[in-house]
Design goal:
Elements lengths: L3 E4 L5 H14 L11 H10 L3 E6 L5 E9 L8 E8 L8 H15 L4 E8 L3 H9 L3 E12 L3 E11 L16
Helix pairs in contact: 1-2
Length: about 180
């Protein structure tokens, strides 16, 4: 299935929260407090990133969402970080693949030169497999860095991919540089 992806608007939040909340409560993939309240989640996912996007199915239901933000400030701002979430009803249907591909295109258009995932939980095998398939490399392993609610301390991975750009890379064109 092909999903339409657009920049998220504030009124999307209730649908996004409906699938983010169970993901955050399980505590198996994000380094966030499992008891994070809705307002804190909204700030993290919708209010503080540079951009947040929604993936919609053919019926207009939001079945996935992702955000883009600079991974670091200042001299590190040319590398972005993204977070992705897919509704349970749409898992395995290609939503994450399409959002990741979309995010790479969007990030390059915003002037980012690379994408880095700082903390991919090693037991999130589907995500690790997909990111590798889409060209990300594991550039670091943090032994026992994630306290998994069922499995105890497991490794976290740092994954990285240089982005391709159809335009020149110039600080003048970088979205944070002017």
């Amino acid at each position: 299935m092909n999903y339409s992806i657009r920049e998220s608007v504030g009124t999307d939040w209730p649908q996004i929260w409906s699938f983010l909340e169970p993901i955050f409560r399980r505590g198996e993939t994000y380094v966030l407090p499992r008891a994070l309240d809705e307002e804190g989640a909204r700030v993290f996912w919708l209010d503080t990133p540079l951009r947040t996007y929604a993936a919609l199915d053919a019926n207009g239901m939001i079945v996935g969402s992702y955000f883009i933000r600079p991974n670091q400030p200042g001299p590190g701002a040319h590398v972005c970080n993204c977070g992705y979430a897919v509704a349970e009803v749409a898992r395995g249907a290609g939503v994450a693949t399409q959002m990741c591909e979309h995010s790479q295109t969007e990030a390059a258009a915003l002037g980012f030169r690379a994408m880095q995932y700082n903390f991919v939980v090693s037991t999130n095998e589907g995500a690790v497999r997909l990111w590798k398939k889409l060209g990300f490399e594991i550039v670091g392993r943090l032994p026992g860095a994630f306290d998994h609610p069922r499995l105890g301390y497991v490794d976290a991975l740092v994954m990285f991919k240089k982005l391709e750009s159809k335009s020149c890379w110039s600080s003048k064109h970088h979205m944070l540089g002017g």
